[in-house]
Amino acid sequence: MNGNMMHLPLTIPSLLAFAASRHRDTEVVSCHSGGRHRRSYGEVWGRVNRLAKALLELGVRRGDRVGTIAYNDSRHFELYYAVPSIGAVCHTINPRLDPENLRYVVAHADDRLLFVDARLLDAVLGALPDYPLQRLIALEDAAQPARPATLRYEDLLTAQSDAALNIAIGEEEASGLCYTSGTTGRPKGVLYSHRSTVLFALAMCSANSTAVSALDAVLPAVPMFHVNAWGMPHAAPMAGAKLVLPGADLSGRHLATLFNEEQVSLAIGVPTIWNGLLEHLGGSGDRLPAGIRLGVGGSALPRKMIDAFEGMHGATMIHGWGMTETSPTGAAGIAHHASRALPVEDLRTLRETQGHALWGIDLRLVDDDSGEVAADGKTAGHLQVRGHWVANAYFNEPQHDAFRDGWFDTGDIATIDERGFLTLTDRAKDIIKSGGEWISSVALENIAQTHPAITEAAVIAVPHPKWQERPLLIAVRAQSSEITEAELLGHFDDKVPSWWRPDAVMFATALPRNGNGKVIKSQLRERFAAEPILQRSIVDSTGGWFREDYPDQQIWATG
Ligand code: AMP
Questions:
Q1: Catalytic residue positions?
Q2: Residue spans of the chain under pLDDT 50
Q3: CATH superfamily of this structure's domain 17-360
Q4: 223 Cα to the center of ligand 1, angstroms
């Protein structure tokens, strides 16, 4: 017997329609074209309706993909709503993609139109010489000089009216497309639906995650081209929160200014962004708004960062785990009722974990033979996930090994403790297998980063004749530090079993990172795998790498 309840489709336009009606005067603040612009949700809704009509006039039909190559600003936000409001799919593209991958994703998605930030237009035209000019729209203001042949965003809107179209949309229809960052292999497309997006936004409003509410001013410092800026452009209108879009400048200085002037209460970003903010706060003496919450994910949250933000700046860190395939957040958390009485040090230790699975998400750990392993906080396994906002296939690539038996294999290695807290120990491809045993590169990186003389660290496996693989630490020294390899290796004493200790340290001036701030370990492995690390000194042609001079026999001394 069915219940007697109404069934209304969960659709993306309904989020902004709600904000425009119930939080009409709440602001969307946007940094673009050299200024800071404010519009109310009511005004933005009118512009979205104008844009939707312009899209129809340009021939966009249900299911068509519309590409965006843009930063976090109000025009991008309007595209987030106008495109799915007519049943089309908003394909957000990373502006930092190299030309070959840009050509690949635009061709694979078969983008009907491309909306491009005016600053990126020349680069895009260079990378896509065959893309028809009449299908390119420059995101620029009416005040800016028109470019020949490309359409201008503001001109499209001027020609239309504010009235809503109210096109009926099914909740299972596709709404957004985002390609994985692809540090190895071709990018793979994840096709979100209206329903998955709305349910995920609801999860971001839960107090167990980022707790977005009408009391908040939310600043996504994670790009809108990466997994829908972790749902904030959807959660903010759903909650009636003020939205602050920082544009392309994610520097610590700019973020601190916006935080204070716009009274931001929740901001989300990857650790690299928060590192920049910490450096700025340290150098300038600027302060953060009281009680600000900082969401962080994408890579591990270093303990030093938790101590600095919570201990010195009065912020609360919310650490989450997720992937493009999981919309992205699958786990997040602050603490449990049972942990409320814990001393602050222990609470911060809890924050180092990737948190607790959210409602709507199931997590499990399996071994190499797909047998489930114990959630005892010690046994590591391949992390698999299923849930309402988890992909069940890649776009136009129905066969992929990662999707099997109703679960998605994340490629992450993790433990889950008895209370349900998730700890990522590695990427499956990054784990170090020494004599058949697993060594967690993440655990070693975290230890290296607790040393005050080290700002960044990455650990990779390098081939070893006896042990198959051994860990190599690549570290970036803090300014003016002269820490030696032996001193840094000494820092591991008593923190890990002796056979976990890295065999050698290379000091670098920076770590290679992809457009989303993740360390590109494949590049490090390429750089060092074939490298005779027994050699005394290495300086590559860019001058980027150098190593300590130490006796050869010291290398491979362990294990
Ligand atoms: P992406 O699809 O580009 O967002 O990358 C997803 C991957 O980032 C995950 O599979 C993890 O390996 C990594 N990741 C995400 N969140 C965290 C986190 N909090 N700590 C460590 N790694 C993370």
A1: 180, 325, 433, 438
A2: 532-559
A3: ANL, N-terminal domain (3.40.50.12780)
A4: 15
